[in-house]
């Protein structure tokens, strides 16, 4: 599924796409990824649902202007504005990684309304981050100046580490491509430098207010966010079941596609 549409919001250009017929389902990607992680699933579901994909500002095919903030708060506002632009009142929302915090804040702080929420290996509550994140936050502009071939090696190694089974070369190429352009390299480090865990602290305090069906799904071999965080998140949300998928890391979309597709269809 291609992102053939554009939404202008506060000087940003947000790439998005829509396909299919039926109840609306909106997918939210994480970092350092794009809507490509959900593209195959959107295609498969478009026979029964109207599916929406979008790239957050600063990611994928959306604009990457250095003066535009890309933190959780900004992304949540952008998501709420995009839902209003689409005229969606209560869509089903499916979120991965950073998209979890964005979709949670959009409903808890920006008052976006959903019919349900499926959270897959999400960044949502503290603790989060990694030694690499802390290094980038300490030296963001220095890394902007890396020779492109060294930057590419870093991004490839970082993204590849999110998969438990190992990404095929075309999959890895597709995921890293947006970060290898002239505006993509500084955007990659900028989104890490602006990562603010205070938004996750706020989420932890307010997720108990959710009054919609929520399900938490986690890869049993997620090397980025431990299963203990997923279980704790589910415990904080009233009535939220927790499911672990074996032989799956942080990129469950690639590690366990059949299991994830089955869980998606069952939930939707």
TrEMBL record:
Keyword line: Hydrolase
What InterPro entries is this protein classified in?
Answer: AB_hydrolase_1, AB_hydrolase_fold, Carboxylesterase_BioH
* Gene Ontology MF terms: hydrolase activity
Domain spans labelled AB hydrolase-1: 25-261
Gene3D superfamilies the record matches: alpha/beta hydrolase
**Name this polypeptide is given:** Alpha/beta hydrolase
From which source organism is this entry? Answer: Kribbella sp. HUAS MG21
């Amino acid at each position: 599924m291609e992102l053939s549409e554009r939404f202008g919001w506060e000087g940003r250009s947000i790439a998005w796409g829509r396909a299919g017929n039926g109840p609306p389902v909106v997918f939210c990607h994480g970092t350092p990824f794009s809507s490509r992680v959900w593209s195959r699933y959107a295609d498969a579901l478009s026979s029964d649902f109207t599916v929406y994909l979008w790239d957050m500002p600063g990611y994928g095919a959306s604009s990457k202007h250095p003066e535009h903030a890309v933190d959780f708060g900004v992304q949540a506002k952008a998501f709420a504005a995009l839902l209003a632009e689409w005229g969606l009142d209560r869509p089903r929302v499916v979120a991965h990684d950073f998209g979890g915090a964005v979709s949670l804040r959009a409903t808890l702080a920006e008052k976006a309304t959903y019919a349900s929420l499926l959270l897959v290996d999400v960044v949502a509550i503290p603790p989060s981050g990694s030694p690499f994140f802390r290094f980038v936050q300490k030296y963001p502009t220095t890394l902007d100046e890396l020779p492109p071939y060294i930057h590419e090696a870093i991004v490839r190694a970082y993204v590849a580490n999110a998969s438990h089974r190992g990404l095929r070369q075309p999959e890895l190429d597709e995921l890293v491509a947006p970060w290898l352009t002239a505006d993509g390299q500084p955007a990659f480090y900028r989104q890490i430098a602006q990562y603010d865990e205070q938004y996750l602290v706020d989420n932890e305090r307010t997720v108990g207010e959710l009054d919609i069906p929520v399900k938490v799904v986690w890869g049993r071999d997620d090397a980025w966010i431990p299963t203990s965080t997923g279980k704790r998140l589910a415990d904080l949300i009233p009535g939220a079941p927790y499911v672990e998928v074996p032989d799956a890391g942080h990129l469950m979309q690639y590690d366990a596609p059949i299991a994830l597709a089955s869980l998606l269809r069952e939930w939707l």
